[in-house]
Specification:
Blueprint: H1 3-43, H2 47-51, E1 71-74, E2 82-83, H3 91-94, H4 98-103, E3 105-107
Organism: Acidithiobacillus ferrivorans
Protein name: Histone family protein nucleoid-structuring protein H-NS
């Protein structure tokens, strides 16, 4: 028997095995679902109860988004200098008293 003939036989055997695995997996899933349906019925669970079991969506270890500031601080002496509330407070803002800081607040955006 030639190597090419053996290769073709192996490919056919692999395809048949893959098909059988898919069939068995489908049957196993159906049996599992039947068991779950029986438990849901017996315990009177709702869709809301089952939804709590679902894994969280999104990719794991995603960074939390920072809440955006509702307002910014604009330097009255130089309007190009703006502090958006993230990171260390700039010197020009630290040097102001509380009233002056409140006067520098502008709506974010």
């Amino acid at each position: 028997m030639s190597i090419m003939h053996e290769l073709e036989e192996a490919k056919r055997a692999k395809a048949a095995a893959d098909k059988r695995v898919d069939e068995l997996l489908g049957r196993a899933k159906e049996e599992g679902l039947e068991q779950i349906r029986a438990i849901v019925k017996d315990l009177g669970l709702t869709a809301h109860d089952l939804a709590r079991l679902a894994p969280a969506t999104g990719t794991p270890n995603t960074r939390k988004l920072r809440k955006l500031a509702a307002f910014w601080y604009r330097n009255p002496a130089d309007a190009s200098k703006v502090w958006k509330g993230a990171g260390p407070k700039p010197t020009w803002l630290k040097e102001m008293n509380a009233e002056a800081q409140e006067a520098c607040k502008v709506a974010a955006g």
